[in-house]
Amino acid sequence: MNLDEIIEQTNDSNAYSSHLVGSNGIGQASQGWEPSNLVLLESGYVNTGLVDDESRIFTLDKVDYQIPSRLSAMAVSNNIMIMAMETMHLLRIDLQRQHEIEDIEIPRKVSEGKIYKMFFDPTGRHLIITTETGDNYYLFEKWKKAKLLTKIKGIVIESIAWNRSNDRPMESSTKEFLIGTRNGLIFEAELEPTAELFKKEERYFKQVYSIQANMPITGIRMEQFPVTRRKYYVIAVTPTRIYQFIGTVSPNSSNGVIGGSEDKAMFESLFSKYEVNPGFSELPGDLPYSQLHFFSPFQDLQYQGVAKTFAWLTGPGIYHGNLVFGSQNTGDSVIDTPQLLPYPATRLELDASTAVSEIPIAIALTEFHFILLYKERIRAVNQLNDQIVFDELIPLKAKEEVITMSVDTTKNTFWIYTGWSIFELIITKEDRDVWTLYLDKKQYDMALQYTRNPAQKDRVLTLQANHNFSQGRYMLSAKYYAQSTVAFEEVALKFVERDERDALRSYLLIKVDKLRKGDKTQKTIICTWLVEIYLSKLNQLEDLAASSAADSDVQNLMAEQRVLEDEFKAFLETNKMYLDKKTTYKLLASHGRTEQLLFYAILIGDYERVISHWIQEKNYRNALDVLSKQESLDTYYRFSPVLMENAPYETVSVWMRQPNLNPRNLIPSLLKYDHKSLEAGAQNQAIRYLSYVVNQQENTDPAIHNYLLTLYATQPTREEAALLNFLNTDGRAMHYNLDYALRICTQNNRILSCVNIFSSMGLYGEAVDLALKHHDLELARINADKPEDDEMLRKSLWLKIARHVVKEKKDIKAAMEFLSNSDLLKIEDILPFFPDFVLIDDFKEEICQALEEYNIHIDELKADMDEATKSAENIRIDVRELRSRFAVVASTERCTSCDFPLLTRQFYIFPCQHTFHADCLIKNLTPFLSNRQLKRLDELQEQIQNEMQNQQKMLLMNGGLSLQPMSANNPALDAAQAQGLGGHGGLTNLPLIGQTAAATMALGGAIGAGGKLLMNGGVAIAATAAQTAAGAFNVFAENGNVGGSGLGMGLGLGLGGGQSKGDDVAVVVPRLELLRDELDDLVASECLLCGELMIKTIDQPFLAFDEKELESSWGVQ
Length: 1117
What we know:
Blueprint: H1 3-19, E1 58-62, E2 71-77, E3 80-85, E4 89-94, E5 97-105, E6 115-120, E7 126-131, E8 136-140, E9 147-148, E10 157-161, E11 177-181, E12 185-191, E13 202-210, E14 219-224, E15 231-237, E16 241-248, H2 268-272, E17 280-282, E18 291-295, E19 309-313, E20 318-323, E21 335-341, E22 345-347, E23 355-357, E24 362-365, E25 369-373, E26 377-382, E27 388-393, E28 402-408, E29 413-418, E30 422-427, H3 434-440, H4 444-449, H5 454-470, H6 474-483, H7 488-497, H8 501-514, H9 520-547, H10 551-575, H11 581-590, H12 594-603, H13 607-616, H14 620-629, H15 633-646, H16 648-656, H17 667-671, H18 685-695, H19 702-713, H20 721-730, H21 738-747, H22 751-760, H23 764-773, H24 777-784, H25 791-808, H26 812-820, H27 827-830, H28 844-883, E31 886-889, E32 907-909, E33 915-917, H29 918-925, H30 931-958, H31 971-981, E34 1020-1023, H32 1025-1030, E35 1032-1036, E36 1042-1047, H33 1070-1083, H34 1092-1096, H35 1108-1113
């Protein structure tokens, strides 16, 4: 119904109702209002009779709150209520915390004019107040006082369209919104709360459109298109006109964000396209006011959806419809299926026979109802059937008048207020009866959406199924019957009587899916019935295709048959567990559906039936395909003989793809393979499979290896390459039987293989003999070289070959060439094989060459002996030179570590001239030794101490001398001095000094036989490591004369009666020297300061943690 028809019908109805014609007292203007319903409804609730639940949907409750002064206006949004008093005060109440009431002042005198309207944004944060004089005020949620909007002065605001988009969710501003004024202008503005004194809240305020008529814009709303963010829909209404605007908005020129500014308003480009000849729709009437409401099913602030429906209060009635957002452009309409609902007539209290249509002062829109507010009552009209479902008088006091109604669109609450009272219209279970209304209108799908329990749903489905069945839509009826509780037998008989097999099939399919898993008997019966139905339908399609003459019909029937076959296969796959195997096989076979029978057999795992079928059809390729898809090994073993006989290559390929097969069980199948029918150059499939098993699967079964060797040996060709390759590579581990291999190769005259087997058995002599027997010298040579570890055997094998060459071939030159190929035989080895009267001319050159080689070898030995003699002499010279190496230690020398005199106790001296006491060196080196080295160091020190004590005891037993430190109180030294062995001068209080093999010396009391003082001026001369290691050292006085020979035991004793003439005299104590040498290697292998240890410890600090006092002593006072 278009707008012109609505206007025409409205005019007719108004004229008709004005005369009050008809016996029932009302004309056609009521449009659906039954006369029986036109009664004075005092109870407040009309029972629709559609549900058992008689609870109230609408309830009007009075708010228990004493208003301090008379109300001028009220607004509610997001559970925030603001009441404007005539005293120019605002009361702000959070409905979730009702005890907290804020009193907010409006900077305005009462005499300056009353408050006209208040506009609350959906978030409940921004409030705009307009007065009758055109002064406008702004209140932010955190403010305690409203502020005057100076830029919007002199404009009476009739309506505001808030911007509900989430483009800038973090901002505190109102975002861009539209203002409809009393004189027909539309402005765009944006407010931002500020605490600065001189800064205005209006970001900008600019006119964007004029309707060119002095009519108030009583309602304006905007919606953002769901897909395009920059595309908006704006609807504006006056008391008689409705305008629609569609277009894209302008982004902010500064940063590209959607938004307006002083220079360019956001909606300016949208309205600019409607400057000339703006399109609008007009309804007749002289009502001075109107309202516009949208309803969106998604009211949440974060997940808001676009409006779904709208309602416009006009003089003729409520103009309403759906809002459909799509690809509309400028000039198009978003309103779909608009309708005009005349206001319901009300019988007069004084004259019950008279009914008049009263225009409400305000309306509200819910999902399913129109809320109509009158001066004394409130009504709710159902949108689906235009029936009044709620009508209740408002309990007003004397001379109390209803002002209007405020709607919280965010929380979907409704508030009615007078000057001194507030009422709330509570809506509960609004959609309770909706399903019955849709059901009456035969909108079954919509009715299903609003059913609340299974009984309601079943009623809808049953009626929907019956309706479709009566209309001949059997497939749809089958769908809904299957979901309802209508008896199975009743539905089945309905379709059988109408011979609707397709609908019956659809019904049974849905029904079997809805049965429980425990209902196996029912499932089996229904599934078996479905199999019969499917097979009958397939045969029917085949018969129709065969009898049809038109090609197009045949193609259509064949296409339908293919679809049905796929559907049947899907059914079998889904319900195979509920079908009886024997019964199903009989049904499929009786209808001749071989393809479906095989498919079903594969589904239930009856692969043997499928394979047997393809073998009977001699379709071995298909049989192998099925065989490869199943996993039973017994099935492989059962059908492999016949498959190997008829399709050997494909069968072997299938075997190779199944690694779990036991090759031993496949030997009967391999025996069925016809080896003689192979064409020249064709591959033997038995050998192919067994080679794969041996090489890839590393099979070690002797039976497999023996059989493979037999196949190689019994090949018709005389070529032995494959057999030799198996023996040398594949059969290297020799899992086959060697005796059997030798026998089978001998029977088939495989000489090379026999030789190889002899060699594998270690019978190299037999291998060489067999090779020589068949005059294969090269093979004999190869096998003669195989015993690499037994040179005598190799030589004997080569002699066999040489004897064969000389005696059998009697070719002297060939024998000489053969001799050159062996490094074991010489000319003298084969001379005995030559005949007695052979001429020497044939091998004279070889004999001469051999003699020359002997001479060269003798010369090489002589040169080696001369070189050895020279080396020995050089070593003697080096030893003599090393004996004369020494180091000079002054008596004033100090230890590098402790800085005490070096000669006070045992010490070490290094070639780098660093000197350490033995205990200092060990102490400094100990932190860097491993646990094993530390343990060995303790053992060596203990063993050296024990060994020295043992040596001391031995000397005391032999000569009465003891190994004691040299001092003034040493009896042994005094005794030696008394006999004329000389004094001890600068050696007083010198302890026993140990020796080292690391370029150090052990300084003892070396006393010459002539009694000369061996030390002069306290200068000690240490022997080199080489001498000390040998157990002897020389000590020199400052004048360079040799005073005598010392023993490397820490105490030197004169052994001769005069001075030494250079002869080396050394007395060695082997164990003590070995221990000392090991100790020296451990602690004195390198200098502590110059060796590798210094490099490894370069990252350590110069001072240790226990040397803090030393560090503090270096400080400057």
